[in-house]
Amino acid sequence: MRRMKGAWPITIGGLLLALLAVLWPLAQATAQGGESLTTCIRPMHAGDNSRTLLTQAGDFDFDCTRNQSSYGVGDFWVLSQPLPVIAGDVRDRLAVGFASTWQDATALHILYADGQIRTVAFTSATTAPYLLLGPTIAVPLPHEETRPVRILWEAHGAANMRGVVRGARIGPYADMLAVESSLGLTYGVILGVVVGLAVYNIALWPALRQPLQPVYCLLLFFITGYTLSSSGLIGQWLPWLDNNERHRWNAIMLGGVAMTLVIFSRYFFERKVFEGWLDRMAAISFVLIAIPNIAFALLAPRWIIVLDQAVLLGFMVLLIFLIAVLVQAWRRRSNFLWAFAIAWGTPIGLAMFRVLHALHLIEWRPWIDQSTVLSMGVEALVASLGVAYRIYLLSRERDLARADERVARRLADTDPLTGLFNRRAFLEQAIGRSGPQTLILADIDHFKRINDLLGHDGGDEVLRIFANALGEAAGMDMLIARIGGEEFALLADAERAPSPEALLARLRAIPYPSGLSVTASLGVCTGPIADESDWRLLYREADQALFAAKDAGRDRACRGATITPAPQPSGLLPVLRPHTRMLRRG
Asked: If we measure between CA atoms, which residue out of 262, 52, 270, 263 comes closest to residue 152?
């Protein structure tokens, strides 16, 4: 256990270094994604003309100060400020990039320095050729002899939940593709880790049967779905997929992550953490998250703003719930608090930024969306360590419980005074042994006299010494038990059974308290012991031989009739040889 504890800091440090290795090239690539553009918005009116709006922008009431989402759902014009001059070879193809949002149709009208206007248009169903990872829409600008000076977006059916045009940038198209390559590497690592963890836990499920594992696999499924939809990968893999439907699936997967996380936390921690009010809070949180997410998945884009706000409220409930879980786990001294806090601390913190942006308290930045996916990938990896640690502790508890069970069973099977098998355990081990078996019943002679002479404590000591002597004389495969007060039983394969004479000699040579001389009488019988009826027959013959030894003067062994199995399949009873042979000291 000490080694396990010492290994965790090293493991976590390695994970942080791996995360830095992934984030550093991503940050470098994002910094080279072009020059940012300032945009202004104007609702679309009948009779509007793109050329007029581009060439006479100052005559129209474009809003450059208010948040775009304050205009709600509708059709809009979004105008860029004059474009910066992009350094580099004039033959490099420029592109305009901006965040993918819920829109039915989009057109970019590009004004060039010579007065020409070129248009690139696409619908939600034909967005795939322009969709890059991020997800970013990158539209290569038509090449002209003069440079572009302004861009006008024409957006139809914009849900405008966070803005119509967000994060607009202009730069060489090759640089945007380089950013996508870095993102592709990052998402590939995340998906590889998540899928690998899911396969690992599915493979372990039949062996470990921990209820946490299928819940964790479901969480990984939703994280994978969210990564594919949020990054735009699924739009590239399925070019026929409508971009608005991709946004819908993104919302579904994110809602699935949130709902499964409630269940996951419930199974991740010990039962004591969720006792009382937190258990009820978990159920309420699940319902408050599930209802708006299901409604959004089924009804969007109808009432999309209201549904979006309801989903946002559900995520605020989730954040409060997770904080309550961490506090309660700390109060109840949970063994798994550190693993859960490390795994979900980053996603919780970044989710707060998303909530603040949705409430229009902070401006949107590309890293907010990217970091959510990255943090989920890191969460999957760190949470897997937490799950592994949880399974390790559960397995350890299970092993300890099994050891305790074995000890308890051993105690139940053992005579507490001598440490030998008791009668019940002896029969369980004896019945069913194959081949002829030799049963030796040993009874201490005049044991009442020993008790009267030494007292009960002294008598108990004699029993313990006698039992040890029997154990030392027995072979590895011999069963020994105390089956009565001073009566003992030995059972062994007939070919390897000890000689009764040698056993008697050994018992006589053992020193006893107060120099007392202790002898025993033996009853011996050989026969099968395939079932309980065989045992009764074998025991009866050995017991009769024991009585014969006592009647003959004690301190000797008598052999009972050898029992032979009845011929098969005649079903006749075993045949007894009607003689008893006396074995005396020489």
From this structure: 52
Share of the chain above pLDDT 70, in %: 77
- Paired strand residues for 520: 444
- pLDDT tens for 97-145 read 998 999 999 999 999 999 899 999 999 999 999 998 878 899 999 988 8
Which SS3 state, helix, strand or coil, does residue 383 take? helix
pLDDT band at 572 (very low <50, low <70, confident <90, very high): very low
Structure tokens at 407: 């000890």
What's the rounded Cα separation, in Å, for the pair 81 and 58? Answer: 11
What span, in angstroms and rounded, lies between the C-alpha atoms of 29 and 32? Answer: 5
What are φ and ψ of residue 218, in 5° steps? -65, -40
- Residue reference for tokens 């198209």: 173
Q: Is 486 a catalytic residue?
A: yes
Of 232, 92, 68, which Cα lies nearest the Cα of 153? 68
Tell me the domains of the chain and their CATH numbers: 34-176 (2.60.40.2380), 182-401 (1.20.1070), 423-583 (3.30.70.270)
pLDDT digits (tens, 9 = 90+) for 401-410: 676 666 666 6
**Apex 48 CA angle, 45 and 52, nearest 5:** 145
Q: Which residue of the set 486, 495, 501, 541 is catalytic?
A: 486
pTM beyond 0.70 = no
Interatomic CA distance for residues 67 and 41, integer angstroms: 9
User: H or E element: which one contains 121?
Assistant: strand 117-123
Q: Among all chains, which residue has been given the structure tokens 């009442």? A: 448
Q: Are 134 and 369 in contact (CB under 8 A)?
A: yes
* Chain-centre distance for alpha carbon 242: 34
CB proximity list for 252: less than 8 A, separation 6 or greater: 225, 293, 297
pLDDT tens across 486-535, in order? 899 999 888 888 888 888 888 888 888 877 888 899 999 999 988 888 88
Angle ∠(81,96,135) on CA atoms, nearest 5? 120
